[in-house]
Design brief:
CATH topology of the largest domain: pyruvate-formate lyase- activating enzyme
Protein name: Fe-S oxidoreductase
CATH architecture of the largest domain: Alpha-Beta Horseshoe
Strand order of the largest sheet: 2-1-3-4-5-6-7
Shape: globular
Keywords: Iron, Iron-sulfur, Metal-binding, S-adenosyl-L-methionine
CATH class of the largest domain: Alpha Beta
Cofactor: [4Fe-4S] cluster
Number of domains: 3
Number of strands: 15
GO cellular component, one term: cytosol
Radius of gyration: 25 Å
GO molecular function: catalytic activity; cobalamin binding; iron-sulfur cluster binding; metal ion binding
CATH superfamily of the largest domain: tm_1862 like domain
Helix content: 25-40%
Strand content: 5-15%
């Protein structure tokens, strides 16, 4: 038990986002402070990238490259070696530009003579101007200088990420770092082997940053929030470093990855790194855990917490206590995070798609969980979906005002699974009444409650963009998914948003059980028409994944599929392979779908037959080419 005053450090491990802090530590820090607990936070994901992408970091990379045989030099590495001095000269000013600290550098960047250009710049070739002019002129026009420079600088950073991957750490990515070590891994062995391996440059930098953070904050407890498999390896590396140097510090693992994939954790080796592993909403388990560490609560009275028992086996302890109400979790705080050091990136030349990587958004939830919680592909049995709780518009607006006062930033991303229309209406009215002056975007279900009038109200309150799941544009499959919407309804709702000046992004899916080639071609035709008719401006196709907690995974017979037995294991469990009797090659179809959607987002091919995107013969769409146009003529 700790005799020292409780000091909690919440850490964002690599990798999450580079343009804005992942919100979990902000929520936990704000909540703990509201309960009088000393709490701090660190974003080691950002710190790691900024250290690697610095003159000293690139010199260290160059040193590693010198030890590689020439035959292992990939095109990215060869380009870096050939232009090394230019990279060393340009990295610091380019980072400053992307942080918004030196906007005038845009003039030099767009001239295409300042930044060294590696293989990633080859993507610009597809935009070559027929008259020999600016290949990006169609996207940025004559005056979009800053955005054009941001896009070029992003390509420059992506080249450097490729160099890090090819020469230093083959698992390195800006987002999905080493995710194969943890995602749906039945055994801890791959992660254990990686943690036991000789540290590479990325590991060494992360270790140094970890020790500096601990020395700076002097915590008694360190929380590592792991939202995705792509941040699990780094979280374990951080915990490993802490335990080696400061074994008295209690380390706690939680977050989205834990909540979905480690619910049946039975691997004792996890507790060589973490003293406690908590599930679901962290507020109540943390309060119980901190009481335990202060000697005020026995271990048998912990809440939703895994521990390693005296017998060396994993135990799950869950004293039944009610969760902290969503309205009482307090206001998230970004105090302690370097808000002026995040990088605004521009990966894709699409005004809606850029929101995920460009700009520093205050992330906030309108409600906990999902009010619909019926979609058959979703983890509706888990707390983050199944327990729906809201807060009043006044409480939400108070939180928004407090965050603006703290950060000086008026942009908000509502990160709900699906923000309820009733709550958004009330919040919009409250924001207008307070003259809040914010900009916001979020995720919704494209349900009929979103009328043109509500869309206008949301726009007036500051809504600039909306994302939502169309999934497979097929009424048969939407019904099988229990999505609760139809294609025509989605067209009407998205058109209402677009006409209100709100950008619309559609989440799209392929490979759902019983989905045929014809279904896929028809779905792409619907999507083409939605773009053509100005209903949506952005979209993304992802492959359906059957998870153990979804209705499909729990009741496969209802969806016409078979589930082979899962491999034996005591670590992560989430994705489930399945046998679909249709036998469709969804991987081949997926490549065509992604190529099509990329072009649609750039206004290319919207008048063409969708079969042109497939490199093999597919059936003709059964959907009439004016289906969406006719649907839009109907009254809502």
């Amino acid at each position: 038990m700790s005799a020292l005053p409780t000091r909690v450090l919440a850490v964002i491990p690599p990798m999450t986002q580079l343009n804005t802090p992942y919100p979990s530590t902000a929520y936990l820090t704000g909540f703990l402070r509201s309960r009088g607990i000393t709490a701090m936070q660190e974003d080691l994901a950002l710190a790691l990238v900024l250290q690697l992408l610095s003159p000293d970091g690139l010199r260290a990379v160059a040193e590693r490259i010198r030890s590689l045989p020439a035959r292992q030099h990939t095109p990215a590495v060869q380009s870096f070696v050939a232009q090394q001095e230019r990279y060393l000269a340009t990295i610091a000013p380019t980072i400053a530009f992307l942080q918004g600290r030196d906007s005038t550098l845009a003039h030099r960047i767009v001239g295409r003579h300042f930044l060294p250009e590696g293989p990633r710049f080859a993507t610009l070739d597809v935009y070559e101007d027929e008259e020999g002019g600016d290949p990006l002129g169609w996207a940025f026009g004559a005056l979009g200088l800053h955005d054009k420079a941001k896009h070029l600088a992003t390509l420059y950073l992506n080249d450097l990420a490729d160099v890090l991957r090819d020469a230093v750490d083959e698992r390195f990515e800006f987002v999905r770092y080493a995710e194969s070590l943890a995602g749906s891994q039945p055994t801890f062995d791959p992660l254990a082997n990686a943690l036991a391996a000789e540290p590479n440059l990325v590991d060494e930098v992360l270790e140094r940053l970890t020790l500096e953070a601990v020395e700076r904050h002097q915590p008694t407890v360190v929380l590592l929030s792991v939202p995705f498999p792509g941040s699990a390896y780094a979280a374990f590396r951080i915990a490993q470093t802490i335990k080696r140097r400061f074994p008295q510090i209690a380390t706690v693992l939680g977050g989205g990855f834990v909540n979905t994939e480690l619910r049946e954790l039975a691997e004792p080796r996890v507790f060589d790194y973490f003293d406690f592993v908590t599930l679901d909403a962290g507020e109540r388990p943390l309060l119980a855990l901190l009481e335990h560490l202060r000697g005020e609560r026995g271990r048998s009275r912990l809440v939703r917490t895994f521990v390693r028992g005296d017998d060396g086996k994993v135990q799950y302890v869950n004293m039944m206590e009610s969760d902290i109400a969503f309205a009482e979790v307090g206001t998230p705080t970004w105090d302690g995070l370097p808000l002026d050091r995040y990088l605004s990136l521009l990966d894709m030349l699409n005004p809606m798609h850029r929101l995920w990587s460009d700009g520093r958004w205050n992330k906030l939830t309108v409600a906990h969980g999902c009010y619909w919680k019926k979609c058959s592909f979703c983890d509706v049995s888990l707390d983050y979906i199944g327990r729906y709780e809201g807060a009043s518009a006044a409480v939400l607006a108070d939180r928004i005002e407090a965050i603006v006062a703290e950060t000086g930033q008026t942009g908000f991303h509502f990160v709900d699974e699906a923000a309820p229309p009733k709550a958004l209406k009330a919040l919009s009215q409250e924001l207008i009444a307070r003259n809040a002056g914010i900009s916001w975007w979020g995720n919704v279900r494209f349900e009929k409650t979103f009328t043109p009038e509500l869309a206008e109200l949301m726009a007036d309150s500051g809504c600039i963009a909306i994302s939502g799941g169309l999934e497979v544009a097929s009424d048969r499959l939407l019904a099988l998914m229990k999505k609760g919407v139809t294609v025509d309804q989605v067209a009407l709702v998205t058109k209402a948003f677009s006409e209100a000046g709100i950008l619309v992004h559609a989440y799209l899916m392929y490979g759902f059980p019983t989905q045929t080639v014809q279904d896929t071609v028809d779905a792409l035709e619907y999507v083409r028409q939605l773009f053509l008719n100005g209903c949506i401006q952005s979209g993304f196709f992802h492959r359906f994944s059957c998870t153990v907690h979804s209705p499909v995974g729990l009741n496969p017979e209802e969806y016409g599929i078979e589930l082979p037995p899962l491999p034996e294991g005591n670590f992560a469990k989430n994705d489930r392979p399945f046998i679909d009797p249709t036998g469709v090659d969804h991987d081949a179809l997926g490549a065509a779908l992604k190529k099509a959607i990329y072009n649609f987002m750039h206004g290319i091919g919207l008048e063409e037959d969708v079969r042109m995107w497939f490199p093999f013969k597919v059936p003709k769409p059964t959907v009439k080419r004016d289906r969406i146009a006719r649907a839009l003529q109907q009254k809502q």
